[in-house]
Specification:
three-stranded parallel beta sheet; 7 strands; 19% strand; four-stranded parallel beta sheet; 179 residues; alpha/beta; globular
Amino acid sequence: DARGGPQVVSYNVASDNTVPWCESVTVPTWLSIDHEPENNKFPNGAAFVDFYCSQVDIIRSAGNPLISVGPISMGYAYRSRYGNGLDGSYLPPPDYCDWYGVDIYQQLPNYNLPDFDYWKNWYGLVQPLHKPILIGEMGIYAEPNQYSGGTIDPKLQAKRALLIPQYFDYLNGLGNVIC
């Protein structure tokens, strides 16, 4: 960032350029390793965690205190009915994470973030690890879909737009969330 503010970088390919890049970073940087690994190239959580930890070792070998690392989970992978992240197998050990991140999207009729099934499941897994929580992406669907009857509904869009500040208030009230 030319303004000197924090930057967020997603990293998912092992490279001989990793250490030189890490050494070149001059602004605070949140580095996510394989954004949403639950929906990616890994056959299971153990394979992701092995890759993740090996890359953190390389990144930390550069010795740059401006870089913090963590995974950003796909929120939907923690849904009770069929989430492949429910067992926590995609969450690396806390010694390898400066923070844990998640993407939050909602399109169901229930718009109260503290009640989202996958949020409660994911947060229940990471909260006891005592690390900051980073919200990677957040949104509330308002485009035509099965809940709006396939048409644009300006009232629904306005209602959902008002919820985003409420979500930020809730998340900021937790005290350990980076939005």
